[in-house]
């Protein structure tokens, strides 16, 4: 029997005065002919081997029937927390991260199931001095 599947992508959504907000974009595929309620989303963001932030998003909605549903989970990280990984950021002006997400979905007959997702990657931080974009793209290739 098929089960719902999901894929995960992470981007910077917003940089405010006190925090940076990452957006975890989750694409959930529902193979069933009826919608499925998402009971809860649990998330944790790690960098430099440390858990930076974690939380839950209760009752975010339903997964549409026979379709792909996009669920956006905002993950807000205060700058003072980012300072704990400043050594990693200062080295190459990016954040190496791992995000772990658990989707708790209610399946008729089976009950609740958990769909674990994780993704590792790096996010380049925007420069505040208006640096040359060409220099940034060269930096990315230096790491390969």
From TrEMBL:
GO cellular component: cytosol
Family: Belongs to the LEA type 2 family.
Database matches in SUPFAM superfamilies: LEA14-like
PANTHER family per the UniProt record, alphabetical: DESICCATION-RELATED PROTEIN LEA14-RELATED, PTHR31459
Pfam families for this protein: LEA_2
InterPro entries per UniProt: Lea14-like (IPR045043), LEA_2 (IPR004864), WHy-dom (IPR013990)
Span of domain Water stress and hypersensitive response: 5-122
Protein name: Water stress and hypersensitive response domain-containing protein
